[in-house]
Amino acid sequence: MGYGKVIEKVYSTESSGRIVYNGSTVYQYRTEHTDPTDASTYSVSLKYIFKAGAFTLANISLKNDYVFPYFPGRNLDWRHGQLLTKTVKNETDQVVYDEVNEYSNVVLNEIPAAKVFVNRADKDYFFLNYSFVMGWPKLISQKKNTYDRR
């Protein structure tokens, strides 16, 4: 889900041909913007496979995504696209119904992965452990309210 807010407007046409506004429904979703994927959450440990000469770990950035082979993007899309709120409004834009959903985004597992790269050809080879997060969203509560707007 790429949109954080979707507004569905309802119209009808009278027999005279006049278009009449009948209200709207506003949907709000969890998105990358409201629940960002944070690259800094990678758990990393750097190990030398081969080291020639004097070289310290301080000379290399552990979170350098631009060293081949590249890190795959940290994907938490399973947490995005959840309907957070639904609000129904009448023809005068008064709220007649709303719904608030709450989810538990449970991390099921972390899948271990590794990256091997060269810092200096034939001098430094590094092995970097990191993990992917797998999860499952679960709706844990849904509060619905109907309002009398006569």
Write the layout of secondary structure elements.
Elements: E1 5-13, E2 19-29, E3 45-51, E4 83-89, E5 95-120, E6 124-146
Antiparallel strand pairs: 1-2, 2-4, 3-6, 4-5, 5-6
In total, the number of strands is: 6
Mean model confidence by pLDDT: 75
Largest sheet features: 6 strands, antiparallel
| DSSP summary: helix tally | 0
SS strand fraction: over 45%
Walk across the major sheet and give the strand order: 1-2-4-5-6-3
Q: Structural class per helix/strand content?
A: mainly beta
List low-pLDDT spans. Answer: 39-46, 48-52, 54-66
Describe the fold and architecture.
By secondary structure, the protein is mostly beta strands. 0% of the residues lie in helices and 55% in strands. It has a six-stranded antiparallel sheet with strand order 1-2-4-5-6-3, with no helix packed on it. Mean pLDDT is 75; it is low at 39-46, 48-52 and 54-66.
Would you summarize the structure shown here?
This protein is mainly β and 150 residues long. It is built from no helices and six strands. Strands 1-2-4-5-6-3 form a six-stranded antiparallel β-sheet, with no helix packed on it.
